[in-house]
Design brief:
By secondary structure, the chain is mainly alpha-helical. The chain is 75% helix and 3% strand.
Length: 491
């Protein structure tokens, strides 16, 4: 079963690293992650040929007396998010090749273990299994940040852990509450279909309780205002690869959760209370953008920009129409590619100069024009320039928001304008102007660094010019989801 391989191969690969010595560990981890990406390509192909294929399903009795089973499957939405995960992990590992980490074997084992948990989150069809993978994804990134993070990492990582665990407890309580309302021939069940049937049949008040408990967990993970306070410090103090895992993939657990575990299960609550979630998401767009404009540290600026971008994704998804959800899925892919590219650029600058303080930099284009050009192309994707991947997702999201509320679309659209302000202004200060003392001998981009960044640039323009593969994959699942939502409202 392909889906079983995608879950268990990173786990096996992590333990295989115990047999590898020295600097070969990073090369082995990279090779293992490339195999995972190749198999994801096979999954995409088989789903395109036959969405109902058994190759993308796996079922095993786990605790049948409790209605808990190892039930995983990939629909179009799952394929997209697994693709994002398995696409970015090789880039994240490759970006670390020029670094020397203490106990590298443990470092790369944790990355692969996190990949396993992330894939599990995106393919779980059992609510309890989803919760298990959700929690498992927290453990590797906690130790990555704690062991290899910057100054104050213990305090900052503990805050991140407590925030996430707090939200997870509400999610578990909500899932158990809903589970007790399910009814199958064999008793209660955590299967998503049983949970959906139980959720759509509950009273409006009960649906609202489930909605807010689940939304709290997802809002912390994304994060959106006012549950975001763990994010900037964690992103800044985590090692570069940890920040990429958090921003490029892990926050998508929250936006994915909205699509899979809220919208179809409690449609009435989404209809009645979705405006609260949309309002908080729009506030996140404005809040994140304004704070990004005021930042003097480039890494922290990217962190706040991520809050703004994910706010738009969440708002478009909760608007609950085909354009909004498709836009959210496309933008999840685009944001993952773009933000990993930006953090790689930031890490390269910090490694060469010893700082990410914007005012201390300048004139890099004069000494490293190749580096400056690639950085510009990635920045253009992040500001949603037409013909880049960022434009496709944000256009669909704003379209979906406009169908929901014109005012929400108008405010959401500010993410493009404000994004251009803080990204282009920071690029101007860092890359253009007069050289500073720190950039006089700034090295040009190396061949190895090109191997990381050029493929990301190609993806930015490929999906910007030809987004059909992403849209074609998402459309059937999104259409079915919206239909299920409308049927739930009619009950």
């Amino acid at each position: 079963m392909i889906v079983g391989f995608l879950i268990f191969w990173p786990l096996l690969a992590a333990f295989l690293l115990l047999l590898v010595k020295g600097e070969q560990v990073k090369k082995a981890a990279f090779a293992f992650s490339l195999l995972e990406l190749l198999v994801t390509g096979m999954a995409w192909y088989h789903y395109h040929q036959n969405p109902a294929t058994d190759l993308l399903k796996m079922y095993g009795a786990w605790m049948p007396s409790l209605g808990i089973n190892f039930d995983v499957a990939m629909d179009g939405i799952g394929v997209l998010l697994v693709f994002l995960t398995t696409l970015l992990v090789p880039f994240i590992i490759l970006s670390s090749f020029g670094k020397s980490y203490k106990t590298p074997r443990a470092f790369y084992m944790l990355i692969l273990l996190m990949q396993m948990a992330l894939v599990g989150v995106f393919v779980a069809m059992d609510g309890f299994l989803f919760y298990i993978f959700w929690e498992l994804a927290l453990i590797p990134i906690y130790f990555i940040c704690l062991l290899w993070g910057g100054e104050g990492r213990a305090r900052i990582t503990f805050k991140f852990f407590i925030y996430t665990l707090f939200g997870s407890l509400f999610m578990l309580a909500a899932l158990i509450y809903l589970y007790l309302h399910t009814s199958t021939p064999t008793g209660h069940s955590f299967h998503i279909d049983a949970l959906t049937a139980a959720g759509s049949g509950m009273s409006a008040q009960a649906q609202a309780v489930f909605f807010f408990c689940m939304f709290l967990a997802f809002a912390i993970k994304m994060p959106i205002f006012p549950f975001h306070t763990w994010q900037p410090d964690t992103y800044v103090n985590a090692p570069a690869q940890g920040t990429m895992l958090l921003s490029g993939i892990m926050l998508k657990m929250g936006t994915f959760g909205l699509i899979r575990w809220i919208l179809p299960i409690v449609p009435q609550a989404v209809h009645d209370w979705g405006f609260v979630a949309v309002s908080l998401s729009v506030i996140s767009i404005l809040y994140g953008s304004v704070l990004a404009i005021t930042q003097k540290d480039f890494k922290r600026l990217i962190a706040y920009s991520s809050i703004a971008h994910v706010g738009l994704i969440a708002a478009g998804i909760i608007a609950f129409n085909v354009q909004g959800i498709e836009g959210g899925l496309v933008q999840m892919i685009s944001h993952g590619i773009n933000v990993v590219g930006l953090f790689i650029i930031c890490d390269m600058i910090t490694s060469r100069t010893g700082t990410s303080d914007i005012s201390s930099l300048g004139g890099i284009r004069q000494v490293a024009p190749g580096f400056a050009l690639i950085a510009l192309l990635i920045v253009l994707g992040s500001v949603a320039l037409p013909l880049t991947n960022g434009f496709v997702g944000e256009f669909l999201l704003i379209n979906g928001l406009f169908q929901y509320k014109a005012a929400a679309a108008a405010l959401g659209g500010l993410t493009i304008i404000l994004g251009a302000v803080y990204m282009l202004r920071s690029y101007q200060k860092i890359m253009l102007g007069e050289k500073s003392a720190l950039t006089l001998n700034f090295p040009e981009i190396t061949f190895q660094e090109k191997m990381v960044l050029i493929p990301l640039v190609i993806l930015i323009f490929f999906f910007g010019i030809y987004p059909k593969p992403l849209l074609q994959l998402a459309e059937p699942a999104v259409t079915a989801l919206v239909h299920k939502y409308n049927m739930g409202l009619m009950k």
